[in-house]
What we know:
Layout: H1 4-10, E1 14-19, H2 24-36, E2 43-49, H3 55-61, E3 65-78, H4 79-82, E4 95-99, H5 105-117, H6 135-148, E5 154-160, E6 165-178, E7 181-191, H7 200-215, E8 218-225, H8 230-238, E9 243-252
Parallel strand pairs: 1-2, 7-8
Antiparallel strand pairs: 2-9, 3-8, 3-9, 4-5, 5-6, 6-7
Amino acid sequence: KSHAWEASFFGFPIEEIKLGGHAEAEVVPHLLELIEEVGPEILLKVFVDARQLHAIPLLEHQGFELWESRFQWLTTWSREELLQRHDLNPKLPGDHVVWGNESHHEAILEMTQTHLAKSPAVVNRFDSPFYPEGSAEKWYAQWIRHVLGSPDVMVAVAEHGEGREMAGYFIYMPGEPRDGVALYKGILSVIQPAHRGRNLHVHLQKFLFEEMAKRHERVTLDNTTQVSNYPVIRNHAKSGRRPDHIELVMFRGPHRR
């Protein structure tokens, strides 16, 4: 299918194919047919379910490169579970968790650019030759502005000290209910390096969970990260979240840098 929003944003055609968990004999012939139908001017993404790893060599032989991965966690919690206490390091006296507002937006954008878009520790599709230089900065700036502009967004901000320095943020966005249960998608969380190591991200989540518990008896949390993001994966596992699926994303198309 066409990736219309991203294609419009960057100004070149982008399409995608998603592989489910079908048997290899069912997938390979159909996959080759679909690939052959895609013109050389199109950036094509193929999302490979972890159960379809046999498709990776086939795609590499067709000129595809692995540039992204997705580890999704879908966890349904009751109101009581959202409000449960964790064995956490206590917050420092100078820490304050508050609701984000417009006065925080520029700091959120700056932190996103520094610690995500421009960070050498984060590898994603925008580092590939299939996107022009500067694509990460352009994409994340627009994405975060779009998210922050939503009236439904939930933004928790950690401030520190008398000057209320912004130490970090955590964003959740309501999504379409899943099986009749309210769903919240984790959008992004960034903690300034100087303020890491004291579980600020957990305190930010707790602040958001308390608000969700006021609204709903049950909530499904949708959290997605890169397979290589071990710290986040460990935190999800420790907090009792349920892994749902893993995808590897292969890319092929004209080089644009």
